[in-house]
Each structure stands twice: as structure tokens, then as C-alpha cells.
Design a protein that fits this description.
Layout lengths: L6 E7 L3 H5 L3 H15 L5 E4 L6 H13 L4 E6 L9 H6 L4 E5 L12 H6 L2 H14 L5 E4 L5 H21 L2 E5 L13 H7 L3 E5 L1 H10 L2 H14 L1 E2 L5 H21 L3 E4 L1 H5 L9 H9 L3 E4 L3 H14 L3 E9 L4 E5 L16 E3 L13 E3 L5 E10 L5 E10 L12 E6 L3 H10 L5 E6 L3 H11 L2 E4 L1
Parallel strand pairs: 1-2, 1-3, 3-4, 4-5, 6-7, 6-9, 8-13, 9-10, 16-19
Antiparallel strand pairs: 11-12, 11-18, 12-17, 13-14, 15-16, 15-18, 16-17
Helix pairs in contact: 7-14, 7-16, 9-11, 10-11, 11-13
GO molecular function: L-arabinose isomerase activity; metal ion binding
GO biological process, one term: L-arabinose catabolic process to D-xylulose 5-phosphate
Keywords: Arabinose catabolism, Carbohydrate metabolism, Isomerase, Manganese, Metal-binding
């Protein structure tokens, strides 16, 4: 789901006044816009619109970007352009915007004449345009850089990924199989407020739909999935054919429901599955592989966490659902794990991912096949979405390192020890004060800056701890 580059429109703004003063300026500056897009070819796929000089031009180009389902718009001032021509456009635009405060030449030299001044005068057009967006109350990002620099590509790339994530998030549908865990407070959210403010939509799927779906899965689809697992993972010989077939049938049925109903994220609650009375086991392994395929996931009916894992896929790749299990003060780290669900794409590369037989009393069902792996050591980031009531949301983010710690032989689920950059004591004090939830998404790498841009574009308060 996240292999494609962000698709970004380039809106180049100027005005007709300069056509009479400098013949050919439009063609020259249009070429400059294409050069900028070519320089950024590795961070996004760009659609470069023609230079816009009037309100009608700008609104026509923007409609084209929206109709093409692009992820965002990069605004480049080709010369000064009066903001009143784009003020209404930016008040109505639904795509994330980045204002590139750049100019063709990086340095003012003694050789400059009036033409050079005109070619490079984008800064005051950027001020006028930014002022229009501020007045309209529209969120936008700004990048002031030499457009040929690596820093420019890095910053635009970060914004483009955030734009892709926010745009996808606004159309996200989260399916909850059954219901959310009773009395679990930090996963609760006003669904109407979430939809209005941020875009994700939550709906509920009857467990009976999954039961019927399992019976519609053909035997060859089950056999194909099991053969793929045999080739990809170390499979526990204690797992019976019947156990694996039942797990595979559940996974195929879940994915078909997600696909058919347009869900890109989902949640299952063990009680909703266990109390139904028709299922033999929990779909834990299914959650791991579906996360690895790019679906968002949250346990226990946690639609917010499922939406966050989906956003983590879009923003930084390979979102991993997890929670803080216990603190380890000697190593200044936190044991991260969950009941059995985890994205095996974040596993250590020097150890096989195992599909194991394990006993689990939760749900009062038969043994669920479960993926067992340790999270890859190195930089990592945690992010938790907090509902503050009404349409107010906060993202709590912590950067740190996954430690290379000894194996915990009795732990039969995905795990790793996360050492916050600010230390366990300081991090957890701040996390709890901020209301950080107990379910979260982990991404490999330090991506707090990416989450900050995501929050700026989505209208979420950002809190790094």
C-alpha cells in the first residue's frame, strides 16, 4: 500500500505584468518549475501545472490536481504573484499544501540586472500567499531552502510523505469486528468528531460476517497461503494441519471483507470473537501478516490505534502495532509487546520469524498460531493518538532506540525493548501527563519530525516527550 511515491502537483504562481517587461519570462519560469520537479524526482511523482497568472488560471489548475486524486500541492512562486488571486482557492482547497520559499539563483551577485531581480523575487510573493492561507485558517508547511540542496529534497520529501498520509487518512475507513473492549477508556472516541475533524470513519462488522466469509474461502486459497508461509517463515512442527487451515481461512476471509468494503484498517477484540461461540481461535497471525501487507490494525476494538498504524505505514513505512508492557530500569528501557499481533516486517534480520503454536487463555479458545520475532535493534519512534474531547486531538511521540537485548525465552509474542531518548523516567512522566494511550504505532527510524508535519497538516496538537 505504501510502495508508491507521493503524487504531488506543482502550482507555479506569477503575473502577466512581467510579460511585457521581459518577453519570454513565462516560458523561462515554467522551465524553472520543471527543473525543481526534476530535482525532486526521487521523493515524489510530480505533476507540473502551467504557470498561473489569474484567479481563473489558478482555480482551473487546482481543480485538475484534485480531480487527479493527488496527495498534495507544492506551491512555487515563479515571480511575485498577488495573493488575492489565490486567496479563495486556498480557503477551499482540500489538498495539503507546502509553500516552497525558493528562487532560481542561490546568491545575489554584482551581475544581476532588473530581469534577474524579477526572476528571483518569489520571496515577497510567498509572504503574500502565506498571509492569505493564514487568514483563511488553512494549515500548510513552508520550506525555505536553496532548491538544489539535499536539505531541500529532504524537507520536501518529509512533507510529501506527510501529505500522502494525511490525504489517505482523510478517506480512511476502519472496520471493527464486533465491539470495543468494555471499560477500556483510552481507546474511546467520539466517532462523529473524529470523522469531522480528521477524516477516518469507524464502522462495525458483525462476527457472523467473518464466520460466513470463512466458509466461502476455497481450499486452494487456504493451501496457497500455507505454502507461502512455509516458504517465508520458520513454521512450528507442532502446529497441526487443522490449526493452520483454520488460521489461514480466517486471514483470507478478513482480507476479503476489508477489500470488499473499502477498509484499509481494522480491529478485532478477543471477547467479540470468543463470545460469539462459532470460532475456534483468535486471528492473531492474520493481524501480523495483514499489517505487513499495509493494513492498519488495533487490538481490542481500538480503531484509533488501527488508524495510527495505517498512518504509520503511509508516513514512514512498516507501521507496527504495540504497547508498553513493563519498564526495565537497569537498561532504562521499556518492554514493548502485545498479545501476539505485530508487523513482522520490523523483525530482526539475523533471526527467522517463527510461526509458532502457543497456548493463550485469553478468549477461552484453542491455541492461536502466532508470529514470534524480536524487533530490529536501532532507531525507532512511538506515536499515540489521544482524543481530548470534541474535535481536539493530540499526538504523543517518543523517539529512542530498540536495544539489542538478550532473548526472553518464555515470551511467545513479538517483542523488543525500547529505550526512550529522554530516558524512561522523563519520557513516561511526560507521556502520562500528555494522556498518551497504551496502544500505539512504532516505526523504525527517528521520524518525530515527520509526525510533526503530519500533525501540522491534519490539525492535531503535537507533543514530543
Amino acid at each position: 500500500m505504501t510502495e508508491r511515491l507521493p503524487r504531488i502537483g506543482v502550482l507555479g504562481i506569477m503575473q502577466a505584468l512581467y510579460d511585457h517587461m521581459i518577453p519570454g519570462i513565462t516560458e523561462r519560469q515554467a522551465g524553472y518549475a520543471r527543473e525543481v520537479a526534476d530535482r525532486l524526482a526521487g521523493v515524489a511523482d510530480f505533476v507540473v501545472g502551467p504557470p498561473v497568472k489569474s484567479r481563473a488560471d489558478a482555480e482551473r489548475v487546482m481543480r485538475g490536481f484534485e480531480n487527479d486524486d493527488l496527495d498534495g500541492v507544492l506551491v512555487i512562486m515563479l515571480t511575485y504573484g498577488p495573493a488575492m488571486r489565490v486567496a479563495r482557492l486556498f480557503s477551499e482547497n482540500r489538498l495539503p499544501v507546502c509553500l516552497a520559499n525558493i528562487q532560481p539563483e542561490p546568491a545575489v551577485t554584482a551581475a544581476w540586472d532588473m530581469s534577474d531581480m524579477t526572476y528571483n523575487q518569489g520571496i515577497h510573493g510567498a509572504q503574500d500567499t502565506a498571509n492569505a492561507m493564514v487568514r483563511a485558517g488553512r494549515a500548510f508547511d513552508v520550506v525555505t531552502e536553496d532548491w538544489r540542496s539535499d536539505a531541500f529534497a529532504e524537507r520536501v520529501g518529509r512533507w510529501a510523505r506527510a501529505a500522502r498520509a494525511v490525504t489517505a487518512w482523510r478517506g480512511l475507513k476502519v472496520g471493527v469486528f464486533g465491539y470495543a473492549m468494555n471499560d477500556m477508556g483510552d481507546i474511546r472516541v467520539d466517532e462523529n468528531a473524529l470523522l469531522r475533524a480528521l477524516g477516518p470513519e469507524i464502522s462495525y462488522v458483525a462476527p457472523g460476517d467473518l464466520w460466513r466469509g470463512m466458509h466461502e474461502v476455497a481450499d486452494d486459497a487456504v493451501a496457497e497461503l500455507m505454502a507461502w508461509e512455509d516458504g517465508r517463515f520458520e513454521v512450528d512442527s507442532r502446529l497441526s494441519k487443522e490449526e493452520r487451515e483454520d488460521h489461514a481461512r480466517m486471514q483470507v476471509a478478513i482480507e476479503r471483507i476489508l477489500t470488499d468494503r473499502g477498509y484499509a484498517a481494522y480491529s478485532t477484540h478477543f471477547d467479540a470473537i470468543g463470545e460469539d461461540g462459532r470460532f475456534s481461535r483468535l486471528p492473531l497471525a492474520a493481524a501480523s501478516t495483514l499489517m505487513a501487507k499495509g493494513y492498519g490494525y488495533g487490538a481490542e476494538g481500538d480503531a484509533l490505534a488501527a488508524a495510527m498504524v495505517f498512518a504509520g505505514h503511509q508516513l514512514a513505512g512498516d507501521g507496527h502495532f504495540t504497547e508498553m508492557y513493563a519498564m526495565d530500569f537497569p537498561s532504562d528501557s521499556i518492554l514493548m509487546s502485545h498479545m501476539g499481533e505485530g508487523n513482522w516486517r520490523v523483525a530482526r534480520e539475523d533471526e527467522p520469524v517463527r510461526l509458532i503454536k502457543r497456548s493463550l487463555g485469553i478468549g477461552r479458545l484453542d491455541d492461536p498460531p502466532t508470529f514470534l520475532f524480536r524487533v530490529r535493534p536501532g532507531a525507532a519512534t512511538l506515536a499515540s493518538l489521544v482524543s481530548l474531547g470534541g474535535e481536539r486531538f493530540r499526538l504523543v511521540v517518543a523517539e529512542g532506540e530498540v536495544l539489542d537485548t538478550p532473548v526472553l525465552p518464555a515470551l511467545e509474542m513479538p517483542y523488543g525493548q525500547f529505550a526512550p531518548a529522554t530516558g524512561v523516567r522523563s519520557c513516561m512522566d511526560a507521556w502520562l501527563r500528555a494522556g498518551g494511550t497504551h496502544h500505539m504505532v512504532m516505526n523504525l527510524g527517528h521520524v518525530a519530525a515527520d509526525w510533526r508535519v503530519f500533525c501540522d497538516l491534519a490539525g492535531i496538537e503535537f507533543r514530543q516527550v
